[in-house]
Write a structure and sequence with these properties.
single chain; 8-stranded mixed sheet; 3-stranded antiparallel sheet; 7 helices; 11 strands; 29% helix; binds fructose -6-phosphate
């Protein structure tokens, strides 16, 4: 694991964007795994800037998103489909046919999960971007999810629904189900970049880095990935006892 500490959210966002930019420059037709939520918004802003400055192009990049809510329409303002268009896709030159986000049609969501899963095995991600939940979930693999899981329909943890209710009018409106890549799909990426900011993530970050590998702490499985980079701000790193700004082991 390589853990890098930065002053704050903006610094994490810049460093994480530079990491992704380097990968796109190295391999312009890369397959990129994407996350939603507050953590990657700054990273996406910096990627848009790099695109506008003609440093990178997304013309040949293919993307796969980690997850999507089930129970709201894909055009709902809080769907991850809407999120991705608002914060990234509408501002870059990615081709619509290269965008993959799990479909969430309630009528055949199990079948759609299987199709998404199959497609991912033919499209190994070169890089997967991850955030981390306060309960150490990755994607929507909540505590207790099987470490060998593949794309599935998950019942969201109450903690996750409460955390995400900030984007909805009330907790009642937050979907109870989601479709998510499984941990096995996430681990199948060649490289992983996880970003986290804020005091509320400190405990999860600590357990991910130093805790035992257990399905109670889904992010702990990342200790077993051969190429994982973690970028955190000072608050999220506050429990890590880092003497310098990096921790490599
Ligand atoms: C989002 C996702 C989640 C988030 C996590 C952190 O696609 O899969 O695992 O990364 O819930 O969310 P934020 O960044 O909003 O704190």
């Amino acid at each position: 694991m390589r853990v890098y500490k930065y002053k704050d959210y903006d610094e994490v966002s810049k460093a994480a964007a530079n990491f992704v930019i380097r990968e796109i420059i190295k391999k312009p037709n890369m397959i990129l795994g994407l996350a939603t939520g507050t953590s990657p918004i700054g990273l996406y802003k910096n990627l848009i800037k790099a695109y506008e400055n003609e440093i990178i192009s997304f013309k040949e990049v293919k993307t796969f998103n980690l997850d999507e809510y089930v129970g709201i329409d894909k055009n709902h303002p809080q769907s991850y489909y809407s999120f991705m268009h608002q914060y990234l896709f509408d501002h870059i030159d990615i081709l619509p046919e290269n965008i993959n986000i799990p479909s969430n049609d309630e009528n055949n969501v199990e079948e759609l999960a299987e199709q998404y899963n199959k497609k991912m095995f033919g499209n190994q991600r070169d890089l997967q971007i991850l955030g981390i939940g306060k309960n150490a979930h990755i994607g929507f693999n909540e505590p207790g999810s099987q470490l060998g899981s593949q794309t599935f329909i998950v019942k969201l943890d109450e903690q996750t629904r409460i955390d995400n209710s900030r984007f909805f009018n009330s907790l009642d409106e937050v979907p109870k189900l989601a479709i998510t890549m499984g941990i096995r799909n996430i681990m199948y990426s060649k490289k992983i970049l996880l970003i986290a900011s804020g005091e509320s993530k400190a405990e999860a970050v600590f357990k991910m880095v130093y805790g035992e590998v257990t399905d109670d702490v889904p992010a702990s499985i990342l200790q077993l990935h051969p190429d994982i980079t973690i970028m955190v701000d000072e608050a999220a790193a506050s429990k890590l006892k880092m003497d310098s700004n990096q921790l490599i082991f």
